[in-house]
Specification:
Chains A, B: Keywords: Lyase, Pyridoxal phosphate. Two copies of one chain form a homodimer. By secondary structure, chain A is α/β, with parallel strands linked by helices. Chain A contains 13 helices and ten strands. Chain A folds into two domains: 214 residues, Rossmann fold (3-Layer(aba) Sandwich); 91 residues, Rossmann fold (3-Layer(aba) Sandwich). Chain A is 43% helix and 13% strand. A six-stranded mixed sheet of chain A has the order 1-2-10-7-8-9, with helices on both faces. A four-stranded parallel sheet of chain A has the order 5-4-3-6, with helices on both faces. The radius of gyration of chain A is 18 Å and the shape is globular.
């Protein structure tokens, strides 16, 4: 409780891409995740790890579903945001800025309100209305900028100049990454509490904070990390092939949370060292997994979470008998969910060729 | 484990309405529920008790949501069915028959398959296709008979005559009632494990097994029981007024699980003695609660469960600070869920006059 994170925090040094993203990850390790977990206890829900007979049967493995769709703010991102905002509030910050595809923004808005700090968030112009509504409800100011990560990063730089607020990078900030890692750490612990050693965890990959956190959480625990990303935006797959983050030409994906077209430097470095596989998932498989979660697990999950579930449904038996799945969030647009449920949504054909 | 239920089991004596429903409830008590809980451990999921900030804010209380929508078979009814079928299988039964609005039938089908017994279930002709599909998937034979409880009871009597199978009554069978009570008992225990004494539990009322089980589970625990039923089918409200079960003129309700137009004798007797309030819920409120569960709690619940949630959202603050809600099941028709999510479903106007 209240243990400082000074070791993991270093001032921006310009070596990484995004404004405010330059906090070094050098001291990030499993112990940092465990400290983050202690600080978050009683502030986030310890979400359940759920089982589902039908999904097990489909996957050929026992799936352990970490239901972060049931988390405060509807996604695991509140974990990292709470720690990052708390740190800034304790350093005399006058306000915070975040760019996000949605969930990090919701999380930062909620955390800023808790600490009485103003918050401005920058979203892509095609962000789901429900996510925008939730951010405004939490009291943050919403701006939109293009549809690409670079557009949002540029807008953040201007806003930072204008307001003098602090930027909380969604993929690089060490508090964010350590905080996001607590979801995977809890998943491993909760399985262990019922006597189960997870062979692997499957996590969705957008900008990379989930997989970065997972890479830290599994240190020394003998658990593999598998990333899942849309075929339409293979940012980590491409980065691993080219040995470094690159901006990919992004196709359309319903997984709005996984639209960042470039993996963060810190997530890349961790993933490059730790992950055992990255799976790309078709739009049909994402839609099908979202439906399966609804019909069989009775869970509302967003397409980003469905991407991880889809990867697990298809490949889990290759990873072992007991496989954890990070159901990262549940902020799905009701109209999208409705059309997926009634089979009216046909994913764009160009995403299914691979 | 393996403790016999012989004491609660007595042969049919014709004193109650349904065929096979005459098993006496005289020895049903909290201890019976606790024995049932021990027998069910490791055979049903210990479903989580969930919290949701937005639903708390709306209700003015802290709601503790027992997520039996996440249970095997998608509802709490697998609890009672497993015990009842196990008992019959141990007595040399050649097969089982059940009538149900859907969830008891799914549960009996799953339980019968586990014990290698054939099962025939009788549903109303307007039963949701998804429930019928799940029953067939579980290997049971499905028949339909009218839309009223009396129609199904008559069909069950004929089938019993024809096949010589044993009938598992959904509202009167003591194993069923004790089993259903374990859901409420777990809810109270799980809250207690985090230091919370529940002031009340809100349960949906159809034929009455949930409220009967709840009445047993709260014995000596200082927890009030509140029933919630659709305004369109006020079977318990009417029975309490007339001092005995009566068949009510049922209007249309989307809560297919709560369509039985008469409360069982045993549930009535227990409810009459124990419940502190019965709330009737409009169709709009049921639809609204189902949407709220989706949007805020990220849970897929069926309209029966939404009826209990609706009652809690409107009245929980009158019952105390900490109020449990039995989210009884999650077998909602995808097309209904989709239309509720997009606001296309307007409940029948005649149900909203009260």
């Amino acid at each position: 409780m209240g243990i400082g994170h000074a070791r993991e925090h270093a001032p921006a040094d310009g070596r990484t891409r995004g404004p405010g993203s330059g906090e070094e990850g050098a001291h990030l390790d499993r112990a940092a995740v465990e400290r983050a977990g202690r600080r978050l206890a009683d502030r986030v829900w310890r979400t359940p790890v759920l089982r589902c007979d039908q999904l097990d049967a489909r996957s050929g493995a026992r799936l352990w579903l970490k239901a972060e769709n049931l988390q405060r703010g509807g996604s695991f991102k509140v974990r990292g945001a709470l720690l990052a905002v708390e740190h800034l509030a304790g350093s005399g910050s006058r306000g915070v800025i975040a760019q996000s595809t949605g969930n990090h923004a919701i999380a930062v808005a909620l955390a800023a309100r808790q600490h009485g700090l103003p918050a401005i968030v920058v979203l892509p112009s095609d962000a789901p209305p429900t996510k925008i509504h939730r951010i405004r409800e939490a009291g943050a100011e919403v701006m939109t900028a293009g549809t690409l990560l670079a557009d949002r990063v540029a807008a953040v730089a201007q806003l930072r100049e204008l307001h003098g607020y602090d930027v909380i990078d969604p993929y690089q900030n060490p508090h964010v990454v350590a905080g996001q890692g607590t979801a995977t750490a809890e998943l491993i612990d909760q399985a262990a509490q019922v006597g189960v050693h997870l062979d692997a965890v499957v996590v969705p990959v957008g900008g990379g904070s989930a997989i970065a956190g997972a890479c830290l959480a599994v240190e020394g625990r003998g658990v593999s990390v598998v990333g899942a990303e849309p075929q339409a935006v293979p940012a980590l797959t491409t980065a691993l092939r080219t040995q470094g983050p690159v901006t990919v030409a992004a196709g359309h994906t319903i997984a709005d949370g996984l639209r960042p077209d470039r993996i963060g430097d810190l997530p890349f470095a961790l993933a490059h060292r730790v992950v055992s596989a990255v799976v790309t998932v078709s739009e049909e498989a994402i839609a099908d997994a979202l439906r399966a979660a609804f019909l069989h697990a009775r869970l509302v999950i967003e397409p980003a979470a469905a991407t991880a579930l889809a990867a697990a449904l298809e490949h889990a038996s290759r990873y072992g008998r007991d496989v954890g799945v990070l159901l990262s969030g549940g902020n799905v647009e009701p109209s999208l969910a409705a059309s997926l449920l009634t089979g009216q949504e046909t994913p764009a054909p160009h995403t299914t060729a691979a």
